[in-house]
Specification:
Layout (H helix, E strand, L loop, with lengths): L4 H19 L3 E4 L2 E4 L7 H35 L1 H12 L4 H19 L9 H10 L4 H17 L5 H11 L7 H25 L4 H11 L11 H18 L10 H11 L7 H6 L10 H18 L4 H14 L1 H19 L3 H8 L6 H14 L3 H6 L2 H4 L7 H15 L7 H10 L3 H28 L1
Antiparallel strand pairs: 1-2
Helix pairs in contact: 1-15, 2-13, 2-14, 2-15, 3-5, 4-6, 4-8, 5-6, 5-9, 6-8, 6-20, 7-20, 8-22, 10-13, 15-21, 16-17, 17-20, 20-22
Length: 463
C-alpha cells in the first residue's frame, strides 16, 4: 500500500462511510428534539456525483493548492529561490533545533490568533525545503508544519474562521475563557516541541533517504548570481498582507478602518467615472479575505517575479505547469476529502451516534466523545460543530465556555491523525509519506494531548 498511500486511505474511508449509509438509520435534531429517520442508502453513482458537488462547493480550495504549486514552479525557475534556501540553511547551521522550534511556534501562533491554517499552505513548500536542508526527515517536517497548525487550531484565541460558528451557537465572545485557550495553546506547543525533538533524537532515517528528499523538494541554487532582495521582499509582503487581510478587524476587534479605506478607494470617481471599481472589480477589505484573494495575490506576484528575473514567457508558462502538476495530487485529495463531507452531510447517520451518546443532562465524557467523533467525520470545523453543539447548548447544567473549549481543542487534536484532515493528508501526499508511518510517529503526542485536554476540561468544569 506504499504507492499512492494517502489516496488509498481516503478512498477506503469513503468506502467505509458508504457502507455506513446502508447500515445505520439517519436522524435529525429539531431544536433539542431528536427525530429518527429511515436509512438513506448511498448509490454507486453517488460516489461520483458527490465529488462533483465537492468540486462545486469546495473546488476553490483545490484551486488554491494548484495556484500555490504554480507559484513555486515560477520561484524554482528563477534559480534565486534555491540560492535563498541555501543561504538560509547556511546561516542557521548549528542552530537547527532553534529554527525548528521557532517554525512550530510561529505557525501555531498565526493559526491561533489569525486562523490562517489554510492560507498558510502558501508557505508549506518553502518550510518543507528549509527543514529538509537543515538535515531533518520528511516526518519531522510533518511534525513541525502540520503539528503546529493543529495545535494552533486546538488553542484558537482570535482566529475568527475557526470560532465564529461556535461563538454564534453558544452566544459567546472570543474573549470568553481566553486564558483557558491560551493555556491549551502553550501546553499543546510544549507537547509538540517535546515530541518532535524526541522523534528527531530517535529518527533513524537513512542518509540516502535524506539526500533523495533534498534532491526532490529543494531546488538547486548553485552558481546562481541573481539578487535575493526581490524574493525576500515578496515573501515579506505575502506574510504581511496575509496577516492584515485575515485578521478579523471588523468582527472581533470592531475596527472599521480597513473597510472604510476599501470603500473610499472603490468609490473614488475620476470625472464621475468610478475608475478603481471598474479596473479592480470586486475587492474585499482587509479582514474579509479568503484563500481566493490570497491566490489572486500569488498569481500577480508570479507575474512580477517573471519580469524581475527576466523569465521568458514560454519558460514562465512551463514553470507554472510543472508547479501545478506537483500540486495536482494534494488538490485531488482536497476534493475527495470534501466529498466525504458531502457524504456525511447528505446522509446524516452520524446523528444517531450522537443521540446514543448524549443525554438530556450535560456530561463531560459524553460531550468529549461526541466532539471526537464529529471532528473525525467532518473535515470542516463548522460542520463538525453545527451537527452537535446547538443540541449540547440546550442541555441542563451545561457550561458553554467549557463546550467551546472542548469542541475547539478536540477538533484540533483529532485533525492530527484523521484521514479527513485536509492539511494533514495534503502534506503527507505532497511528501509521499505513508499515512501509517505518520500514525506510528504521532500517536504518543495525540494521546498526551487528549489526556492534558481532559484534565483541563475537568478543572474548568469544577471552577
Amino acid at each position: 500500500m506504499k504507492k499512492h498511500n494517502t489516496l488509498k486511505v481516503v478512498l477506503l474511508t469513503t468506502l467505509v462511510l458508504f457502507l455506513c449509509t446502508w447500515i445505520f438509520k439517519t436522524a435529525s435534531f429539531q431544536g433539542s428534539a431528536y427525530v429518527a429517520g429511515e436509512r438513506m442508502q448511498m448509490g454507486v453513482f453517488d460516489l461520483f456525483n458527490y465529488q462533483i458537488t465537492s468540486l462545486q462547493y469546495f473546488g476553490y480550495i483545490a484551486l488554491f493548492v494548484l495556484v500555490v504549486g504554480a507559484f513555486y514552479g515560477v520561484l524554482n525557475e528563477t534559480g534565486a529561490y534555491g540560492k535563498m534556501l541555501d543561504k538560509l540553511a547556511s546561516k542557521f547551521k548549528g542552530k537547527e533545533r532553534i529554527v525548528l522550534v521557532a517554525i512550530m511556534v510561529i505557525l501555531a501562533l498565526l493559526t491561533s490568533f489569525v486562523g490562517m491554517q489554510l492560507p498558510l499552505i502558501v508557505f508549506v513548500p518553502f518550510l518543507i525545503s528549509l527543514i529538509l536542508l537543515l538535515g531533518y526527515s520528511k516526518i519531522t517536517a510533518v511534525f513541525a508544519i502540520v503539528g503546529s497548525m493543529m495545535i494552533g487550531i486546538a488553542g484558537t484565541t482570535f482566529g475568527y474562521t475557526n470560532t465564529s460558528l461556535l461563538n454564534q451557537a453558544l452566544g459567546l465572545e472570543n474573549t470568553n475563557a481566553i486564558w483557558v485557550k491560551i493555556i491549551i495553546l502553550v501546553l499543546g506547543l510544549a507537547l509538540l516541541v517535546f515530541n518532535t525533538l524526541m522523534f528527531v533524537a530517535k529518527d533513524n532515517t537513512k542518509k540516502t533517504e535524506l539526500k533523495a528528499a533534498k534532491d526532490e523538494y529543494v531546488p538547486s541554487g548553485k552558481g546562481n548570481k541573481k539578487s535575493l532582495i526581490p524574493l525576500i521582499v515578496i515573501f515579506a509582503v505575502i506574510l504581511l498582507v496575509m496577516i492584515l487581510s485575515l485578521l478579523p478587524w471588523n468582527s472581533v476587534f470592531k475596527l472599521m478602518a480597513f473597510e472604510k479605506a476599501n470603500n473610499a478607494v472603490i468609490g473614488f470617481k475620476l470625472f464621475g467615472f468610478p475608475i478603481f471599481a471598474k479596473v479592480l472589480g470586486t475587492v474585499s477589505s482587509f479582514g474579509n479575505w479568503t484563500v481566493m484573494e490570497i491566490g489572486i495575490m500569488l498569481a500577480v506576484l508570479s507575474l512580477i517575479i517573471k519580469f524581475i528575473y527576466n523569465i521568458k514567457f514560454d519558460d514562465y508558462l512551463d514553470a507554472i505547469g510543472r508547479g501545478a502538476k506537483k500540486a495536482l495530487k494534494p488538490a485531488l485529495i482536497v476534493i475527495l476529502i470534501y466529498g466525504i463531507l458531502v457524504l456525511v452531510t447528505y446522509h446524516p447517520f452520524q446523528l444517531a451516534f450522537y443521540n446514543a451518546i448524549l443525554g438530556k443532562k450535560f456530561s463531560l465524557a459524553a460531550s468529549g466523545i461526541t466532539a471526537i467523533i464529529s471532528s473525525l467525520l467532518n473535515v470542516d470545523a463548522a460542520y463538525a460543530f453545527q451537527a452537535t453543539v446547538p443540541v449540547i447548548a440546550t442541555q441542563t447544567g451545561v457550561n458553554k465556555s467549557l463546550v467551546f473549549v472542548m469542541f475547539q481543542s478536540l477538533y484540533g487534536a483529532v485533525m492530527l491523525v484523521a484521514p479527513t484532515s485536509v492539511i494533514l493528508m495534503g502534506v503527507l501526499t505532497y511528501l509521499d509519506v505513508p499515512y501509517q508511518k505518520w500514525l506510528k510517529a504521532v500517536w504518543k503526542l495525540l494521546l498526551e494531548l487528549i489526556v492534558v485536554l481532559f484534565i483541563i476540561f475537568v478543572i474548568v468544569s469544577a471552577i
